[in-house]
Specification:
By secondary structure, this protein is an alpha+beta fold. The protein is built from eight helices and 16 strands. It folds into two domains: about 180 residues, PUA domain-like; about 110 residues, no CATH class. The longest helix is centred in the middle third of the chain and has 30 residues. The protein is elongated, with a radius of gyration of 23 Å.
Length: about 300
């Protein structure tokens, strides 16, 4: 096995272990430190979006910063459109990605969801090049070894890549929403102040399966899992004035300490709001949800 393939497989294995430990959103410091391969440290990110470690001849990773100069998007088929490095199609980084495309070489994609946190996606493949738009088209896959004929993916592989990439797009929206909401609420429940991130969810005010259910911080609340479930089942509501309300028949129930202290005592409490007023829940969204709670 040549050195290029060895390094790529080692990077994939290392990322698998990190995701098992930390989840699929990873800190930049961890990625910059990278992993050790044959007594040599191999980082996975750099200040440039297209990164080639010195041990390889072709790029290993591509990165989108949440506040960087490049705005990547998805095309009508849900494939990622990744911007060139600069405006010169013959820049060495762009040439490197073009060679990866021509040889069907897998890469790693890091999508910045909030500053210093990246969703890791691998393997991804460059499947198209548009010099007029200064973009590459990128597809995610779930297989490292691709059946090919003269370097071109088969039709079944193309369908698989289209499906896998569409699921990645959903993950990007979900993880981005979660990370932004958690950051706004400083990783604590807006009802009870629980601060264990592993027990917290980013709850939509307007559900994401509705037209107005946008993945914005203003449509989200950081809630612990029990309060998220109670909010989704309309046992607990939030008024447009940021007051927590409990369903009347639940207030009359007699049960154990969880019901009493965890739910009933929330009645008329003030919602714990983000420090930045720009991140406060949209009052119109709250009103729409509150009317359903009252009904």
């Amino acid at each position: 096995m040549d050195i290029d393939k060895q390094v790529r497989l080692a990077a994939f294995n290392w990322l698998t272990n990190q995701v098992e430990k930390h989840g699929d959103v990873l800190n930049r410091d961890l990625l910059a430190q990278g992993f050790t391969f044959k007594n040599t440290r191999i980082p996975l990110v750099s200040p440039q979006g297209i990164f080639k470690p010195k041990q390889l001849d072709l790029p290993l990773t591509i990165t989108t910063s949440p506040k960087g100069p490049y705005t990547d998007s998805f095309d009508e088929n849900d494939f990622l459109l990744y911007k060139y490095r600069g405006t010169d199609p013959m820049h060495r980084d762009n040439v490197g990605l073009r060679k990866c495309m021509q040889n069907d070489i897998p890469l790693i994609y890091f999508h910045g969801v909030v500053p210093s946190k990246y969703l890791a996606v691998w393997p991804v493949y460059v499947i198209g090049d548009n010099p007029d738009e200064l973009t590459f088209r990128v597809a995610a896959d779930n297989q490292y070894e691709i059946d090919s004929e003269e370097g071109k993916a088969t039709e079944s592989n193309q369908y698989r890549r289209a499906y896998v990439t569409s699921t990645v797009k959903q993950r990007l929206h979900q993880r981005g929403f979660r990370e932004r909401v958690m950051a706004a609420y400083q990783s604590q429940c807006a009802f009870c102040q629980l601060k264990h991130a592993e027990l917290l969810d980013a709850a939509h005010i307007i559900p994401d399966n509705e037209d107005e259910g946008v993945p914005s911080v203003n449509n989200g609340l950081a809630l612990c899992k029990i309060h998220h479930a109670a909010f989704d089942q309309h046992i607990i509501g939030v008024s447009p004035e940021y007051r927590i309300k409990v369903k009347e028949d639940v207030l009359r129930e007699k049960d154990g300490p969880m019901l009493k202290h965890g739910i009933q005592e929330l009645q008329d409490q003030k919602l714990i709001l983000p420090k930045s007023k720009n991140a406060w829940p949209d009052q119109q969204f709250l009103d729409v949800r509150y009317q359903k709670f009252k009904a």
